[in-house]
């Protein structure tokens, strides 16, 4: 998926839902919550629900689920942690900041050896860059680089930890680009 398509989706979200504000939030708590919420449903849910609970983002995940099929471009193959962050950006940043926010988050996700977040249950997860925003490719790249099976418990923890990493980076970017938080 091209950045231009992500931006078109974000503009469509903004036009449909309007601007939402965030209250001041604890960045560490955003990471912890997103990690925890990943296990309840999925990575996109983890990011959206963490911002809803900790930062007061008025967005229910059921709205996200039901609206996703209406987006100009389907992003069902894109890492859900990223799409969750794209929702946060679309609702809270000025549209003129969307491209900067998306590019910074995608670069972080693709180029940084992840995960950085250390789950208490598995603090020694190996790190490797995702090299792709696509979920499957990201997992395969990490598994090849680390020698860990895609069906392993470690891989599950990797995805949960990357959900936290993306939520944390999203929160940092929102703080830098908007007066909130």
UniProtKB/TrEMBL annotation:
Known InterPro entries for this protein?
A: CGCAxxGCC_motif (IPR010181), Multihaem_cyt_sf (IPR036280)
Record-linked Pfam families: C_GCAxxG_C_C
What is the protein name given in its UniProt record?
Answer: Putative redox-active protein with C_GCAxxG_C_C motif
